[in-house]
Structure formats: structure tokens, C-alpha cells
Amino acid sequence: MKKLLLAAALLAQTTILAAPTVQAEEPNKGGTLVMALQQTPRHLNPAVQSGTATGQPGTQLFASLLRYDDGWTPQPYLAKTWEISEDELSVTINLVEGATFHDGKPITSEDVAFSIDTVKANHPFKSMFAPVTAVETPDANTAIIKLSEPHPALMLAMSSQLLSIIPKHVYGDGQDPKAHPANSENVVGSGPFKLVEFKRDEHVILERYDGYFMEGLPYLDKIVMRIMPEETARAIALESGELMLSGFEQEPRNLTRLKKNDSLDVSNAGYAAIGPVNWLAFNTKADKVSDQRVRQAIAYAIDREFILKALMLGTIGPAKTGIHPGSPFYNENVEAYDLDIDKANA
Questions:
Q1: Cis bond before residue 138 (omega within 30° of 0)
Q2: Reduced to 3 DSSP states, what percent helix, strand and coil does the chain have, rounded to the nearest 5?
């Protein structure tokens, strides 16, 4: 379901899954998933690049320290356990034993420290690690993150796509990590799948990494990610069975049509964790809209219900802030600026 922020569309977007109506109690081992990417990734390294085009293959290629369940509770991943100090100025991470990169080299605390430093220096959201002053590595399986001040969002920042654990022995060669050749070719990942081929404007092909540290995983043998920027083409491919999965769909007419197809499962579940936001923002340095009253008048003049129901065909819902309503940081106790032409005129 998409969400609306005043003039803005806060997109908690939609996944469409081609699936049988009866699901097996236990997942079957093996098989190939064919899914869509909506654009060609700039590259495949989420440690230095944001966005779903990089994130969808990148989170399969690279593991993170933590994962989160649907209740926003952190779960072990590369971090077996963790401990936050009483003053909240350090977090001690204890890594799982036996985890390896795709070239067989062990994943160590040095890689964790290097990854945090790389993200802090290069990621578009690098401010999420701004309070980190150092990462100590007393042994190969222990990393101690030191902070200049308590940072409530630090644990979320250690999750998938925000803190991919990348190999220091590959990226620590002095090259620019944003332009490193290992971002697109011969990727040495830490996750459940390894790269087979990245062909721009065509596909990304991954296959299971047999040395993955989580026993019995992954279930799939291969993932084929077809790059399909045209939304109608994706809808047709889903209806025909050519595609099995497409995420981040948002075109209202396609969603309305595909919901009627019994062979497809259309869901908005899970997107709160990503929290993508599309919005119209005011440049408060501009002459007219530097005045708060002008901005409030514009807000009161927007017919949110018309946008929700007529333009978006009921596929979206409202949001009051620029944070996704499903986020633990969302605050609904703010002024909504519901349509009121008299107030706008005043």
C-alpha cells in the first residue's frame, strides 16, 4: 500500500508474487526464482550505494550483522550476540564462527570495522554512523563499536542494505570503493548467493553459495533478476508466468488489475522496513515559501482524499510525516492539515 504525505506520496510499495494458492508447510530445496528489477543497478555493493536496484541483489550477495523480524526486533545474522553498555557508548558484537566470504576467506572483526568505516565515509546515508568514533577488534570474532554519544538508530543501521559486510582483503587495496571493479565483476560477497553474471540492462544472475554459514540455507539454487524498467511489461510478464516475483510496484491501474488474478499474490507487507518516501518539498530559502503561513496554506489546499481515491484508486493510504507509518520512529501525533479551503484562503 502506498502512503500519502500531504502533497507527497510515501510509498510503502507492493510486491507481486506468482504462487500457487496452497503453500507447502516446509519450503522445497532447489529451483530458480525469476524476478524483476525495475532499473539497472549502478553496481552491486550496498555499502556505498543506496536504492532498491542495488539493494535487491546486494542483500543476497552480502550479509549484515543483524536482521529484523516483522516486530522490529533485531535477530542474529553475522552477529551471534551483542551487548550494549550501560552508558550506551559502546556495542560489543560477537560474530558467528565459520562464516566465510565467497572466496573462502573468513569473515572477521577486521572486516566489520572496515565495512563500518567504508559505509561511514561513502554511503548516501553515512550520517547513520556519524557518532561512531572507532571500532576496536580485540580478536577475530569480537568487534567493539565506540560512540561519541548514545545513538538509538545504530542497531537498525547494522541491518541489511545499510551495513553490508564487505571483504577488507578485496576493498582495502586503496582504490575508490565507489568505483571498485569488485562492485560489478568478480564480486566477493558474504551472503547466501554469489554472482554469476551482471549484464547491464538485461539481468543479474545469482547462484547459491554452498559455503554459506547458515545451515540448510539458502533454499533456492539460483535467482535470475531480469531488468525490466517498463511497468506494463512487468505486469504482462507476471500474468503470463514469465515472472515469478516483482517488488516495488506502484502503478494503480496495474495493481488493481493484478489483484483480480487468482494466480498472483499481491501484498504490501514488509515495505515498512524499507520506508521509501516520495514527496514534494518546499525550498524554504525561496521568497514566497520561506513564509511558514504560505506553506501551511498550501497544505490546507491539498485534497488528500481526491489523490488517495481518484488518482491512486485506493491503492494508497495517508501518512502525516516523512517517516513511514510502519516505522518505530513514526509519530502520528502531528497536525494533519486536512483539506480546509477557508483556512488556506485566510
A1: no
A2: 25, 25, 50
The single-letter code of the amino acid at 208 is R
Q: Which three cell numbers stand for residue 236?
A: 504482462
Cα distance between residue 55 and residue 42, in whole Å: 11
What gap in Å lies between CA 62 and CA 194, rounded to an integer? 9
From residue 163, alpha-carbon distances to 1, 106, 278 in Å are: 27, 18, 23
pLDDT digits 0-9 by tens, 61-109: 999 999 999 889 999 999 999 999 999 999 999 999 999 999 999 999 9
CA angle 206, 211, 216 (to 5 degrees): 90
Cα–Cα dist 36/309, whole Å: 28
| Adjacent-strand bridge partners of 94 | 81, 142
Cα–Cα distances (Å) from 75 to 40, 111, 162, 255, in that order, read 31, 20, 15, 32
Task: Give the three-state DSSP class for 275.
Answer: coil
Backbone dihedral angles phi then psi of residue 125, each to the nearest 5 degrees: -105, 35
Residues 249-304: tens digit of each pLDDT? 989 999 999 999 999 999 888 777 777 666 778 999 999 999 999 999 999 999 98
pTM above 0.85, yes or no: yes
Residue 345's Cβ-side half-sphere holds a number of Cα atoms within 13 Å equal to 3
